[in-house]
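quick one before i forget lol
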Amino acid sequence: MYAFTYQKPTTIAAAVAALGADADAKPVSGGQTLIPTLKQRLAAPTALVDLAKIPELAGITVAGDTLTIGAMTRHATVADSADVKRLIPALAALAEGIGDPQVRNRGTIGGSIANNDPAADYPAGCLGLGATIVTNRRELAADAFFTGMFSTALDDGELVTAVKFTKPKRAAYVKFPNPASRYAIVGVFVAETAGGIRVAVTGAGAGVFRATALEAALASKGFAAASLDGVAVSADGLNSDIHASAEYRAHLITVMAKRAVAAAG
């Protein structure tokens, strides 16, 4: 690692002030991506601002059909939460499938979506459920929050503080995982919400995206796996690497979507 200063504020205001005082400072939530990057000397922030001791950033609350998860809530906490399992069991299952126990007990939902790794699971859950991302300044729809590979709509000095989910009619997440990292080679989150059917895909492209052709087929033909028969996803613009070609990922999107619809139904 390169040398850096380390701060551990206890309030959101103090964290924002620390980040604002140094343009090269980086916030740390779970550190599951940032710490390995620092170890490999691929990043050289002058300061790290650890968010772990800010109590209002962690926790799960329920108000009617709205589930609010604090940004510093660990994956394991989401996976084990009785409230999450009751309102959105697909989200608890998603959290349970992230990485391994070590990752789940350190990684956080806020860190995951702020980093927006193109193969991460939570972005698919947020986009698939039409979540609202809450920051220290505003609220953003998931459709507007995720903007590209490792890129979001967050401005400088803006921190994710919570994520709000509304209970869907039904939902499920299915992924084809890399056997080593458990990242999604392709993951598909399908949900029938009050606003319609949503199908979010992770692992296949430069960032999480909605599969509109699959959404249209499910909306017009009915919420059933058979409704996706013959619906092809274009390989144009999809990832192609040592794990899977773009064409194989395109095929997997439909296969995972069918499995998710069957699981949700």
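fyi The longest strand covers residues 184-193.
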